[in-house]
């Protein structure tokens, strides 16, 4: 395993920084006129669980020691009818969040690479 100080997780600032990114990103997504439908009729407990799963996923994928216990991306998003335009809107919000936190370009590209690797499992239409 790589020296922990060289992981993307460490370069992003660790758990607290990744949690702050999730806390910035999720409201952007939920309030987007196109994407908001995915968060309608969700209870607070479900929203908290989704936030934690997102944090765990980002931490695990970036080389942190957290273990992602959620379902795989295909199972989690199957039947949601997520389109390419939905995906593009999501990526736009993710970019805006990463820019808001002044994530350096190399780290930003690494985050986008592992997020984009999930596209085929998430986009249906």
UniProtKB/TrEMBL annotation:
Keywords carried by this UniProt record: Heme, Iron, Metal-binding, Transport
Domain of life: Bacteria
InterPro entries associated with the record: Globin-like_sf, Globin/Proto, Hemoglobin_trunc
SUPFAM superfamilies registered for this protein in UniProt: Globin-like (SSF46458)
Keyword Protein transport carried by entry: no
Keyword Secreted: no
Pfam families: Bac_globin
A GO molecular function held by the record: heme binding
Binding sites annotated in the UniProt record for heme: 77
Protein name: Group 1 truncated hemoglobin
Organism: Amazonocrinis nigriterrae CENA67
